[in-house]
Each structure stands twice: as structure tokens, then as C-alpha cells.
TrEMBL record:
InterPro entries: EmrE-like, Small_drug/metabolite_transptr, Small_multidrug_res
GO molecular function terms listed in the Swiss-Prot or TrEMBL record: transmembrane transporter activity
Keywords: Antibiotic resistance, Cell membrane, Membrane, Transmembrane, Transmembrane helix, Transport
Compartment(s): Cell membrane
Major localization listed first in the record, in broad terms: membrane
Gene3D superfamilies tied to this protein: 1.10.3730.20
Pfam family, one: Multi_Drug_Res
Listed name of the protein: Multidrug resistance protein Mmr
Topology in the lipid bilayer: Multi-pass membrane protein
The family this protein is said to belong to: Belongs to the drug/metabolite transporter (DMT) superfamily. Small multidrug resistance (SMR) (TC 2.A.7.1) family. Mmr subfamily.
Organism: Rhodococcus wratislaviensis (Tsukamurella wratislaviensis)
Gene Ontology CC terms, in alphabetical order: plasma membrane
Amino acid sequence: MPYVFLLAAIAAEVFGTSLLKSTEGFTRLWPTVGCLAGYVVAFLFLSQAVKTVPVGIAYAMWSGLGTAAIVAIGAAFLGEPLTATKIFGLGLVVSGVVVLNLGGAH
């Protein structure tokens, strides 16, 4: 169950972050409300996940997988370029999360 909380935290964080640009510096009400709600929900679920999952592992997964998802969303829906350098960097991030899980989960 803690990994379900962690996946929900990642999804909520990705939701909040994907709305961040549309808030226009927190000047637009509904995108701002959605963005902040996403972050609140993300931290609520993350706080439940870290009751069981080590904080370092949970945070690595939360930030790393969230980063990968946001880069994909940016490329697919926000017109951001997906360069070889970004793909290489994402590979490093995901590799780091995997290594942390392999070394810290046992």
C-alpha cells in the first residue's frame, strides 16, 4: 500500500506542476487553485508513503519519476523540445532512482 500512496503522490505532483505555467505567476484563479491543490494532495500522499518507505527512496522516486513525467508532458503538450541532451539527462535521473532502490530497499 505505501507504493500506491507514492504513485498517487507522484501523480498529484505531476498534475500540480503541469498547471504551473497556466497560473501565469499565480494570477489566474482556477489554474492556481488546481496547482496548489495538486501539491497539497501530493504531500499528503507522500507523508503516508514515508511511514513505511525510507524517505530517501520515496523522495528519489517522487522527484525522479515526476521529473520524467513532466518532461514528457512538456514535450507532448506544451511544445517544449525533446533534445538528445534532455533524453540523456532523464536516463541519468531514472538510473539514479533505480540504483537508489536497489541499494536502499534491502
